[in-house]
Amino acid sequence: MVAVCALGATQVQAADGDITQYKLSNGLRLVVKEDHRAPTVAHMVWYKIGAIDEFNGTTGVSHALEHMMFKGTKKLKPGDFSKIVAGLGGQENAFTSRDYTAYFQQIQAKNLKRMMELEADRMHNLQVLPAEFKKEIQVVMEERRMRTEDQAQAKLYEAFLATAFEANPARRPVIGWMNDLEHMTASDVANWYHTWYEPNNAVVVVAGDVNPAQVKKWADETYGQIKAGTLPDRKPQVEPKQEGVRRVEVRAPAENPYVLIGFKVPKLEDVAKDRDPYALDVLAAVLDGYSGARLNKSLVQGTQEAVSVGASYDMTGRGPSLFYLEGTPAKGKTVDQLEKDLLAQVKKVADDGISEQELERVKSQLMAGQVYKRDSVFGQAMEIGQTLTLGFKVEDIDRMIDQMKTVTRAEVQDVAKRYFDTAQMTVGTLYPLPIDPNKKQAPAPSGMLH
Question: Which residues are catalytic?
Answer without folding.
Answer: 66
